[in-house]
Specification:
By secondary structure, the protein is α+β, with helices and mostly antiparallel strands. It is 35% helix and 14% strand. It has one helix and six strands.
């Protein structure tokens, strides 16, 4: 088991010397042997009788107490106010941006409605002017033969 480990290099053009490594024993840092130590006091043995009549005997285990949590440094009231003010300012800016976008979209929608109404009404007027069917009670004027002089219409 304590045989030396020999590492050989693969054969090559030159012959290398063999390296021999001997294992070194580890010396312990302590000089006295370790002995098991009994606890300072022996805990009391507890017996519990279960409802079905069985008896369970064992050592009582104290519940583990959690370590106290280190108190955090309080945050200054001024820092809280500055942070809340910044959040409020960002909320107002976002709301104004949304309001501006909504107003622009509403304006474009109303403009499209007005344009659509003008196109429909203009088409209706064109149909009325250029239709060939006779009007029952109205006067039909042939625009091609009409003469306009000094803002007066002569038909």
């Amino acid at each position: 088991m304590n045989e030396p480990t020999v590492y050989r290099r693969p054969p090559g053009p030159e012959v290398a010397a063999m390296e021999v490594h001997h294992p070194a024993p580890i010396t312990p840092t302590h000089t006295t042997p370790l002995m098991p130590v009994q606890p300072g006091s022996i805990p009391a043995v507890a017996s519990v009788v279960l409802p079905d009549g069985r008896v369970v005997t064992g050592y009582a285990i104290n519940p583990v107490q959690p370590e106290p949590v280190a108190a955090k440094a309080p945050v200054s009231r001024a820092a809280v106010n500055v942070a809340l003010g910044g959040v409020g300012f960002l909320a107002v800016c976002g709301g104004l941006l949304l309001l501006t976008s909504f107003i622009a979209a509403l304006t474009a929608f109303v403009t499209q409605l007005i344009t659509l109404a003008a196109v429909i009404f203009g088409g209706w007027i064109a149909v009325q002017v250029f239709s060939t069917r006779g009007h029952g009670a109205g006067t039909t004027v042939n625009i091609r033969k009409a003469v306009i002089k000094r803002n007066k219409f002569y038909g």
